[in-house]
Amino acid sequence: MTSPWRFQMLGGFVGRRGDAVLQRYRSQQHRALLAYLVLHAGRSQRREHLIDLFWPESDVDAGRASLRTALSALRRQLEGPGLAPGGSVLITEGNSAVYLAADAVESDVAAFEGAIRRAASAAARGDHEQERTEYERALAAWGGPFLPGFFHEWALAEQARLGEAHLRALLRSCEICRRAGRYDEALALARRAVSADPLYEEAAAAAIVVLREMGQEAEARRQYQALERALADSLGVEPSPPVRALLTAEPPTRVARVAAPHSVPAVAAAADAPMAPTAPSSGSAPAGEGASVPPPPPVRLPRPLTRFFGREQEIDRVCALLTATDAPCRLLTVTGPGGAGKTRLVVEAARRLGEGDDAAFPGGVAFVPLADLRDAARIPEAGADALEAPRPPGASSAFERIDALLKACAAESGAAAPPRVLLVLDNAEHLLPEAADAIRDLLEKLPDLTCLVTSRHLLMLSGEQEMPLEPLPVPPPPGAAVGGSAPQQAAGEGEAGAEPDIPALLALPAVRLFLDRAQATRPDFALNVRNADAVAELCRILEGIPLAIELAAAWTQLLPPARILERIAEGKRLDLLVARRRDIPVRHATLRAAIASSHDLLPERARSLFARLSVFRGGWTLEDAEAVCGAEDPLAFLDSITLLREHSLVAAREGADGTLRFTMLETLREFAAEKLAASDPGGETERRYVEHFLSVAEGARPELVGPEPMAALERLVAEQENLRAALDRALGLGGVSSATLDPADALRFAEALGPFWQTRGALEEGRRYLMAALERAGDAAPEALRARALTARAGLGVVMFAYEEAERDLAAAAELYRRAGDEVGVGGALKDMARTAIGRNDYDRAEALLAEARGPLERSGDREALGTLYNTLGMLRLERNEKAEAATYFWRALELLEGVGQLRQVAAVRTNLGTALAEIGDPEGARQQQQRAADDLERAGDGWSHARVLDSLGETLRRLGRDDEARAVLERALAVRRRIHDWLGAINSYHFLSLLTMETEPETAERYLRESIRIVRTTPRPRFIGFILQSCGDFAAVRGDAERAIRLWAAAAARFRSMGVATDGPLTDHQARYQDAVYAAVSPEVRAAAEAAGRAMDDAAATSDDLLGEESPRGASQREA
Predict the structure, then answer these.
(1) Rounded to 5 degrees, what are φ and ψ at 741?
(2) CA distance 909 to 980
(3) Mean pLDDT to the nearest integer, 440-464
(4) Are 573 and 599 in contact (CB under 8 A)?
(5) Whose CA, among 67, 236, 401, 954, lies 20 to 30 Å from 846?
(6) Residues 35, 48: contact at Cβ < 8 Å?
(7) What does the CA dihedral 721, 724, 730, 734 come to, rounded to 10 degrees?
(8) For the chain, first and last CA: distance in Å?
């Protein structure tokens, strides 16, 4: 029988079966549907119910079609080829229901809930040992919150229910351990509950009760104060009276009895429970009748005065590696740059491994700080001292002392073999390579010893396991889409009423660390709507490095977060981030010192390479580094970059194509850039960097415009930050020197990237770079190159509807081509000028320009030039309602362009041909042409062009009355644009969707329009504002609001006229249909006043929430959902 799919739903959503991993889906809806079916595996789900859950806004037929498509796609992923009728994993019951076969699917949620049920059953039988075992299984299955990142109502409800069950399992386990006298375990469980929900009073109460029974009154008060702070900061309330009473109750004299099955320790009962009168040592049971628990292993670890945040997964990994049942690791080295939090991580992990009756290291755990040790030969002696190993007669060496200690422990416990011992060796890098020899001797002579090491460099010993420590997770950038919504604004730029998601920020360890350290210097500091964006950006810009976050947070005693952010953004992070506390180690006193302590351990050749690598942005490949940094001796070069990796100064990750890509944290890059400025004042490295990425851009261009552009596109996307940085240097933008590249070469660079900018939808960026390059080159660049650059800039402008600027660029290009004697260039520029005239509805000028262009292009015989000419002629014929002639031109263009492999141009012709075929009564031919264009662009990875074609296909289907198909296609276009963050392009999709739904689903249309308004408010563009005003005017007409419709139509026409677009007559078929009735509904005076108000409307009014009037209640609820 085939093994079942095993799904992780706690802490993520991934399915695995054998080597197969399932984590990518055609859409978010497909992913959510599968998650729902996994959660309810074996239980039949009615199709209508699933449609209501996942496609609530679709009508019955569209919903059923969407569900069929989703089930078909999921079945292929789950079952592969050779599908059984009705399915073997994903089972369908006719047309009524569907479910996942219970024996074909397993999940961590099922394991968690099964263990919880068995624990409750055991408690009911009075079998508390089995109850404890089942709770341990439940907690082992818990990998984190249920389906993080899912925002469907059912998922959020399950997240809350399972989160509550997890908390109760922790607290019930805590109570069982407390009753048995296993206080360290009980405390660890209580604190895990507090960490999971700092506002959950029962969790804090459980921790306080355990701490008081352990005699740790001061720690119990600190636990109460932490709860008090959290409740005050987040909810503005105090702890409840029963919790407050915990600190004033009489000290208990005995262990409280076990609570009722499946309950948490009640706060009031815990307060009244008597405790032991004396303070036991850590981990021991309180004195009292019947206490016969054997003494726990000694745990000699530092107890930091500051709180620890996050790193649960990393701690679990350390524990798993050191306690694996088949082959436990005996030498684990946690590596990372200075300030990454290595010491705190290993201390917390070692505490978990060493405490409790079932400790993984019954011989003890000890911490050995190596930072101040200067002789590696003393490491074994320092280890023996940390373990407090006695010096028996005749035992002179450290090995003999530790061996004698272990044998004594075995004799005391009656064990047949010595117990395992864990030594935590902290900060070994400065003692290498001698430290490696000392640690190897310890492990070889003491087989029951395990070493957990922190170092910025691997020890390079056989059997060593490395665990690189990544920075803490940080908040997503402001432009990142969350759940498909439009981009959020950067700090200080949010729209009125938009507030940061403070609970979501507080869930991130990096933010909680900043908040905690800020409150240490300024107790009244709190995360609020005024500073949350700045705090989130600080955590991002400091890249989640714990030391950097702590040092920045200390400045809150003098500066608000926004001011701290300003100073760091000015390039002063290494000077600003300085510790003021006396107990901070020297190596962590400043961020510069933390980096220098790693840098100074490198040989000179590696330090030199580290400095030169600072020119890269966003990472690099080995080939990039060799080209830019020089590799006269390839073996020495490889050794140097390996040293940097081993010293945690660069990181390496394998990309999807198998290429190894290296990265450097920005904080490290800033330090390295200082070193480069001192060692390479002439800028030779920067010059090589710019020249290398110029060759990358020029090498990719032919492939990018050819029939198979995917490989070139992926390469340029991977190097996007480097391309920007290199072009900035070439042009002297952003305050960098421009002496690294000849002005003509800089113009070559910008012109070569034109197709890339268009493919990625980075139109404004491309126009800005091309303008800067043209201005810098002036007359020094060859005329043909300047003409090509002007044509490229105009092409981006046409797509952005910047027709007047585009025509000026093309006129200048045509003149340059004439002076160079390039007839094809002249004809191409004239043909493109005709496109701008068509965009402005100036068809007579377009006709004249095309007549002038046609001669030289037809004489040239150039297939590509002729193909684009006939495409433009077809566009003009289509606008002039000469549909059959338009189709003829498009067919001729298609025949010419298919032969030269210009994929994007072919797709554009197919799109236009589809529009023409629809107009002349061939709807199926129209659909086929536009669908093929969409499929070709999707395969090519050109998301921007793909979405534009889908918009055209959707509009074609709408005009043909095939509204359900049109809507599905337009929603697909919107999904593509969300994926590539093309928010301005999304306005097109919303525009067409609103036209499609405003008569049949006005609430939905209103939601589309309000989303468009929200987007355009952030980046106002006349053309897009015109689209929105026109759509809102149509919507007002449909709703019968005649005066508003007239005002908005007039405002839209004014926007288009400002761009040189003729606006005689209605601009949409909705306006044509409703215009007469709207004008008849008002007096001539009211119409004139409304039109005047529309023409005078400014951008603020044209993008305000009042544009549509008062929002409908249903529209508001849909938008909030």
Answers:
(1) -150, 140
(2) 24
(3) 88
(4) no
(5) 954
(6) no
(7) -100
(8) 43
Position of tokens 């796609």?
73
The full DSSP string for 782-809 is: -HHHHHHHHHHHHHHHHHTT-HHHHHHH
Q: Using pLDDT thresholds of 50, 70 and 90, give the confidence band for residue 281.
A: very low
CA nearest neighbour of 1039 among 1110, 981, 976: 1110
- Contact indicator for 1048, 1032 with CB cutoff of 8 Å: yes
More confident position, 289 or 1013: 1013
Mean pLDDT value across residues 629-647: 82
Arithmetic mean of pLDDT, 698-718: 81
Angle at the Cα of 445 (from 441 to 450), degrees rounded to 5? 80
Six token digits for residue 133: 């075992």
Apex 599 CA angle, 593 and 600, nearest 5: 85
Give backbone dihedrals phi and psi of 573, rounded to 5 degrees, phi first.
-60, -40
Relative to beta strand 97-100, strand 105-107 is: unpaired
Question: Residue 218: CB partners within 8 Å, gap ≥ 6?
Answer: none
682 phi, psi to nearest 5 deg: -80, -10
Coil, strand or helix: which one is 34? helix
Provide DSSP, 1018-1073: HS--HHHHHHHHHHHHHHHHHHT-HHHHHHHHHHHHHHHHHTT----S-SSHHHHH
At 710, the pLDDT band (50, 70, 90 cuts) reads confident
β partners of residue 353: none
Q: pLDDT (tens digit, 9 = 90+) per residue, 192-208?
A: 888 888 888 889 999 99
pLDDT in tens, 933-962: 888 888 777 777 888 889 888 888 877 788
DSSP 881: T
Confidence band (pLDDT; 50, 70, 90) for 781? confident
422, β-bridge pairs: 365, 450
Tokens of 1110: 């008062």
How far is the C-alpha of 14 from the C-alpha of 863, rounded, in Å? Answer: 50
Local structure of residue 682 (DSSP, 8 states): T
Q: Which amino acid is at 173?
A: S
Residue 737 pLDDT > 60: no
Residue identified by tokens 């249920």 is 146
Q: What mean pLDDT is predicted for residues 584-613?
A: 75
Q: How many CB atoms lie within 10 A of CB 913?
A: 26
806 vs 815: CA distance, rounded Å: 14
Sheet containing 299-300: give its strands across: 299-300, 364-369, 421-426, 449-455, 331-335, 465-468
- Which amino acid, residue 193? A
Q: Which two tokens stand for residue 1035?
A: 């919507």
Beta pairing, strands 449-455 & 331-335 = parallel
Beta bridge partners of residue 369, listed in sequence order: 426
Q: Which residues contact 795 (CB under 8 A, 6 or more apart)?
A: 754, 758, 806, 832
Cα–Cα distance measured from residue 527 to residue 530, given in angstroms and rounded to the nearest whole number: 8
Residue 500 CA: distances (Å) to CA of 86, 532, 533: 47, 7, 7
Please report, for residues 637, 689, 690, 704, 791, the alpha-carbon distance to residue 696 in angstroms, rounded to integers and kept in the order given.
22, 11, 10, 12, 21
Reported as a single tens digit per residue, the pLDDT across 864-921 is 889 999 999 999 998 888 989 999 999 999 988 887 767 778 888 999 999 899 888 8
Q: What is the DSSP string of 711-767?
A: HHHHHHHHTHHHHHHHHHHHHTGGG---TTS-HHHHHHHHHHTHHHHHHHT-HHHHH
| Neighbouring C-beta atoms of residue 239, cutoff 10 Å | 22
Inter-residue contact 310 to 472 (CB < 8 Å): yes
The contacts of residue 1021 (CB under 8 Å, 6+ apart) are 800, 801, 984
Predicted model pTM: 0.58
